[in-house]
Write a structure and sequence with these properties.
385 residues, alpha+beta
Length: 385
């Protein structure tokens, strides 16, 4: 019995050693070969992109200001309100203007009433002139027959001239009264126009972006009260360095990335401002934006302009592995996959530009299998470009 115990222990130890050796053998076994597609890197000609940033602005905007000094009675809109063309925005006190209109109308009535008086005066002056002419002719006839003296003829001629002067004066008075009527009409028209300044309306349909007035305050001619932006018709005003003046061409289409919407859209260069800002050494390009839900004035955006062609090394996006800020690509060396860290530039459709880490002629794995590790064996399949 005592001899059997050492034998049993020896058997158990032998069994344990056999299992450990099996596990060691399993750990050292070659992994499975991964079937992968590869692409041989070659230099490609790509467009060189110049990126200009700026802010979205309204194509049409209006600053609403009063033309007269008056008390503000009502402000009928708030910031963010949409208004229609012709809608009343602000109402000013119009009592002084209405009083001025009534004075002008009263002056017109007075001038019109004076016209009748001048007509009567002209008629009387014409009658007196006709009588003076007839009397003077009679005196001249009598003088030929020596029936009157020369003194009497001279007196009749003086009365004739006095009558002519009276008629001229009456006619001049009529012209003065007519001028007063015309002046009163002009004053009435001007008073009505000025009265219209007491009501400020919207010049177009749009959005109220700023309100600077409240009821009870005084309006000052030319001082802004409201700011409106026309609905739609937004533009990106991008700044371009003066050394890159040739990149922008009127009418061309450019890609515009709007950060606030997380979207890239196509805009059209509508205007190139010819002057250069002396402080920033740049000029402004205005790009018409398409109608986008949520696009608002003031948003930040970037426009991409084609600045020429250059050689670059491109890899498919599917080949790039990203771990935070670290980017890598599997390169095939012999029958092994080697992990290579790379520095990438901008994306171009479904490809990324390689700035460093790879060379022309190297083969990369297009879509690395999930379980592929650095140094793993691979079976190569050429991928169609």
């Amino acid at each position: 019995m005592n001899g059997l115990l050492p034998l049993a222990v020896l058997i158990l130890l032998s069994a344990g050693c056999s299992q450990h050796e099996a596990r060691v053998a399993a750990a050292g076994a070659e992994p499975a070969v991964a079937a992968v597609q590869v692409e041989t890197l070659a230099s490609s000609e790509i467009a060189e992109i110049y990126r200009a940033s700026g802010s979205v602005r309204a194509h049409y905007s209006a600053v609403i200001a009063a033309r007269i000094a008056a008390n503000i009675l009502e402000v009928r809109v708030q910031t963010g309100d949409y208004v229609r063309a012709g809608q009343t925005l602000i109402v000013l006190d119009r009592r002084d203007l209405e009083a001025g209109l009534r004075r002008s109308e009263a002056a017109r009535v007075e001038a019109e009433s004076a016209i009748g008086e001048t007509e009567s005066a002209i008629a009387a002056a014409r009658a007196n002139l006709e009588l003076a002419r007839v009397t003077h002719r009679r005196f001249q006839d009598l003088l030929a027959n020596v029936s009157v003296s020369q003194q009497e003829v001279d007196e009749s001629q003086a009365r004739l001239r006095s009558s002519e002067g009276a008629l001229d004066m009456a006619q001049s008075r009529r012209r003065q009264v007519e001028a007063r009527c015309r002046q009163a009409e002009a004053e009435i028209a001007a008073a009505r126009v000025t009265l219209g300044y007491a009501t400020l309306t919207s010049p177009f349909a749009g959005l109220v972006t700023e309100r600077k007035a409240d009821p009870g305050s005084m309006s000052t001619p030319g001082v802004p009260l409201l700011t409106l932006e026309r609905e739609g018709n937004l533009r990106l005003e991008a700044s371009i360095d003066e050394s890159r003046s040739s990149v922008a061409r009127a009418g061309e289409s450019v890609a515009v990335e709007v950060d606030g919407l997380n979207r890239t859209v196509t805009g059209r260069v509508a205007e190139i401002v010819p002057s250069v800002d002396a402080a920033t050494r740049s000029f402004t390009v205005r790009i018409d934006m398409p109608a986008l839900p949520g696009l608002r004035s003031g948003m930040f955006a970037r426009a991409d302009f084609t600045a020429g062609k250059r050689e670059a090394l491109l890899v498919p996006r599917s080949a790039v592995l990203e771990h935070g800020q670290v980017r890598s690509v599997y390169v095939v060396e012999g029958d092994r996959a080697r992990l290579r860290f790379v520095t990438l530039g901008d994306g171009r459709d479904d490809q990324r530009e390689v700035l460093s880490g790879l060379r022309v002629g190297e083969r990369i794995i297009v879509t690395p299998p999930p379980l592929l590790a650095d140094g793993g064996r691979v079976a190569i399949q050429e991928a169609a470009r």
